[in-house]
Write a structure and sequence with these properties.
By secondary structure, this protein is α+β, with helices and mostly antiparallel strands. The protein has 2 domains: 231 residues, Endonuclease Chain A (Endonuclease, Chain A, 2-Layer Sandwich), CATH 3.30.870; 228 residues, 2-Layer Sandwich (Endonuclease, Chain A), CATH 3.30.870.10. A 10-stranded mixed beta sheet has the order 11-18-17-16-12-13-14-19-20-21, with helices on both faces. A 9-stranded mixed beta sheet has the order 9-4-3-2-5-6-8-1-10, sandwiched between helices. α4 runs parallel beside α5, α4 crosses α12 and α16 crosses α20. The N terminus is likely disordered.
């Protein structure tokens, strides 16, 4: 048995989904998901790299866009040639750097950009990056944007429709909602289908460099939300692994589940017809000299040196062996064997820890089987540490209910548990792993874990049944002792300025220990959980919904 082998309750699954099956017959999606223009666009991308193949000895080769591509491609290719069988990685810790990296690399790209995201918010961050991509297309770069549909809305539909009107841009929506304006209807007519979502996150530039990790595109993910934001982790990748990520994108992009935006959305005649004119989150802000909303993003770009560092080969990439993991797109329709699931790939590649296991997961729902495995490992002497969200920090209360029932059993076996505080951004930051802006509450959103002295996973996969069995996920296993040591070391007493350590007393009760104003503070009840919260969490923990979390 492996901690990564989590199965849902077949009985509860059948009962829940059975309620909506009778109403799903009226669903109707377009018969032709891919239109000629977007198909032709993908053929143009293939032609760009076929030309590379035939002219690989010509260092002054000009791509079909007419732009000399020796800068970014040349700088990275030279490093790849030194490490032909390895991949290079560089962690992206702060939201500001995560935004700057995506924006600057978009500006540096000369051939094509492929982006795949679960969430792309219609806010300042989302519109800024769409504008960056539009400007890249204006230079001749081919842009393909693949989005999940779960967090979409009618207004974003119109932005994406105008965005895709550019001859160098195509937008596809995977596993789309049928009802675009009245989205609640989708839960009545198609719950079994729309419950399965594409949770992958990647952005690849010129097939040379890519960013993957836990971050979606939005203010709260990229350090510019005034009320809340996520502590997260991305990784910048070059080398051999990029081709595997590119192939994964291609399989999702070409899937019949991915529909061109034009097949789903009709233009709103009352909205601006010009794409740039329609970017309402930017227009008013940029006309105001006192605008604070875009300052974070402007400063992030101004302070970043990633463009110069890449060209001068000064980004401190660590080169090592990596394995890219991704769910098959057929997981969304249950048309592939569960043996192809990322969770099974993890079990095969990682096996069982022999020394240490450190888990950092925003949504930690281990289920009974997972808990049994963790207890077995802990009792065998494996040092296990877990960091997840406290109740006040989580953005999904139901997930917390699927976790709290297992705390006593894990603690009794010797597992150490830390819970990130929502006020973490207000505390002194001694640990650079989770830096965030101080005016917002913080929620953990990272998905990473380290096994023993050398293996680290970074990606979109949470340790919960939804990631294991329902949504599609992606990530990389990085075989590097330095990164593993850093991740194991991040969960220590130094974390107590930002998190609670949960302790089990001899009488079976729990305590939460933390540091506040440089003093140790002990809570005898769960912090920031009132009576009504406790009742609600208890009721939810009784419900057979773990498989859905």
């Amino acid at each position: 048995m492996s901690m990564f082998s989590i199965e849902p309750s077949n009985l509860s699954l059948s009962l829940t989904l059975g309620l909506s099956l009778g109403l799903s017959g009226c669903q109707s999606l377009p018969k032709q998901p891919h239109l000629p223009d977007s198909l032709a666009l993908s053929e143009r991308v293939e032609a760009l790299y076929q030309q590379d193949s035939s002219q690989k000895d010509d260092t002054n080769a000009i791509d079909t866009t007419g732009i000399n591509n020796t800068d970014l491609v040349g700088a990275i290719s030279e490093q790849n040639d030194i490490h032909p069988e390895l991949s290079g990685y560089h962690p992206i810790v702060t939201g500001a750097n995560a935004f700057a990296s995506r924006s600057i690399l978009t500006d540096m790209a000369t051939r094509n950009i492929d982006a795949q995201y679960y969430i792309w918010h219609d806010d300042q961050a989302g519109q800024l990056l769409l504008r960056d991509l539009w400007r890249a297309a204006e230079r001749g770069v081919i842009v393909r944007l693949l989005l999940d549909d779960f967090n979409n809305n009618a207004e974003l539909d119109q932005h994406l429709l105008r965005f895709s009107s550019h001859p160098n841009i195509a937008v596809r929506i995977i596993n789309p909602m049928v009802h675009r304006k009245f989205q609640t209807l989708n839960y009545v007519t198609g719950l079994p289908r729309i419950n399965r979502r594409m949770h992958n996150k990647s952005m690849t530039f010129d097939k040379q460099i890519t960013i993957i990790g836990g971050r979606n595109i939005g203010n709260e993910y990229l350090s510019n939300d005034q009320s809340s934001q996520f502590a997260d982790l991305d990784v910048l990748l070059i080398g051999k692994v990029v081709a595997d990520i590119d192939n994964s994108f291609a399989s999702y992009w070409s899937s019949p589940l991915s529909f061109d935006i034009e097949t789903l959305v009709k233009p709103d005649r009352t909205a601006p017809s010009d794409f740039l004119e329609g970017l309402d989150k930017l227009d008013k802000e940029e006309k105001s000299e006192d605008s604070e909303g875009l300052t974070v993003y402007r400063n992030a770009i101004e302070e970043s040196t990633i463009d110069k560092d890449l060209l001068n080969k000064q980004v401190p990439f660590r080169w090592t062996d990596m394995q890219f993991l991704s769910d098959d797109v057929g997981k969304l329709t249950k048309s592939v064997s569960s043996e192809t699931n990322l969770v099974h790939q993890l079990r095969t590649l990682l096996g069982s820890p022999t020394k240490q296991l450190t888990i950092i997961s925003s949504y930690f729902v281990p289920t009974k089987d997972g808990v049994d495995t963790l207890i077995e490992l802990a009792e065998a002497g494996i040092d296990i540490k877990i960091l997840t969200n406290s109740f006040d920090a989580t953005d999904v209360t139901a997930v917390h209910s699927g976790y709290i029932q297992w705390r006593p059993s894990l603690l009794r076996a010797g597992v150490k548990i830390y819970e990130l505080k929502s006020t973490a951004s207000e505390e002194k930051r001694e640990n650079k792993l989770w830096r965030a802006r101080s005016q917002s509450s913080t929620s953990l959103h990272a998905k990473t874990f380290a096994v023993d002295d050398y293996q680290v996973f970074i990606g979109s996969y949470n340790v919960d049944p939804r990631s294991a069995n329902i949504n599609t996920e992606m990530g990389v296993i990085i075989n590097d002792d330095q990164l593993a040591t850093q991740l194991h070391g991040a969960l220590s007493d130094n974390l107590l300025t930002q998190a609670y350590e949960v302790k089990l007393l001899d009488n079976g009760k729990l305590q939460w220990i933390t540091m506040e104003n440089d003093k140790k503070v002990v809570y005898d009840s769960e912090p920031r959980v009132d009576v009504s919260d406790h009742i609600w969490l208890t009721i939810m923990s009784w419900l057979p919904i773990d498989w859905l979390l």
